[in-house]
Amino acid sequence: MVDGIVHFLSATAGRLVGELAERFELVWCSGWEEKADEYLPLALGLPAGLPHLTFDGPRPDPGRHWKLAAIDRYASPSRPLAWIDDDLDDSCHAWAAARQGPTRLVVTEPAVGLTAGQATGLLDWARELRGS
After folding, report:
1. Which neighbouring-strand residues pair with 11?
2. In this model, does residue 8 exceed pLDDT 90?
3. 45, CA 20 to 30 Å: which among 2, 22, 73, 113?
4. In this structure, are residues 4 and 62 in contact, taking their beta carbons and an 8 Å threshold?
């Protein structure tokens, strides 16, 4: 429970995110902001101390996903980036296609969360990037 609201997390999410941490720099990109690192590591069995994005900047342009400005502020345009989320829209896909750096969007189902197949796909992608 976060701020009195019940949240459901996948039973395998912690293990899968832990596997991704071996190849990726993890950053919480959640509307929970700093609370993500207060609650999620304990709930998922992950180490605490991950950075988090904040969304206190200017209001997003109409038609642009509300998280994109914060992601742009955090990651340089040429840096490889993978974004896992259950609420990606067309503006996210357009943004990813326009980025200079390699970008992978992973759309999860809210009731399922990150799957083993999606995590494996991300690990394969990371290996491909290192090989090029």
Report:
1. none
2. no
3. 73
4. no
